[in-house]
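Handout, page 2. Input:
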Amino acid sequence: MEPNSQMTPEQAQAMQEKVKNMSPEELKEFQKQQCIFCHIAEGKMQAKKVYEDDKVIAVLDINPANAGHILLLPKEHYAIMPLMPDDLISYISMVAKALSNAMLKALKVEGTNIFIANGMSAGQKAQHFMMHIIPRNKNDNLPLTVPKMAVSKPDMEKLKEIVTKKVNEIFGIKEEKPKKAEDKEKEKKEEKKPKKTKQKIVDAEFKEIEKKIKKKSTAKKSKKKKEEEEASLDDITNVLNNL
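Output:
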């Protein structure tokens, strides 16, 4: 579905020089003029359209991987996914989900592949972002299997560190500094130490109870002594009255 290039090497070189000197706005307009999918979105070229709204358009691929292969693309020109606004990515994903569901029911297929070829090295042929929605059946012999490769543990750890660092940078996540060997050793020693905190609390509570008991006992003794003194005075008064 891409236009054939009929330029000579000299013309191609001249075009490259022209593109280099373009402003971002001029370059975007130039890309739109050269993009066949922009022409389809604008209605300037015919296509087997299955869905359209103000943001996206979905057409049948004329060279499908399987019958019913849909190309879902934004009407605005974006070459690759990183250039797209987040809200548009969210919207086009929602439409892809609905189209996949419609395909399952309409074509009575067993599944779908939904994928994005993001960049030339990933298999992107057209310079216009799109999502592929491909109907699948169990024995359709479509070679879309992903091969498995072995990665050593050190390489896997290195990959994790590199990717995580960049992901944290993009999402604004603060990285925790790795603990030093001496700090880890110190933590281990602290963990091995017997925990006396609970015993200290129990001892403190016992002392407080003991103090209260002593205080109560002292108070009782003082009261008894006072009562005894009062009784002695009464006895002396009685003796004097009987004289």
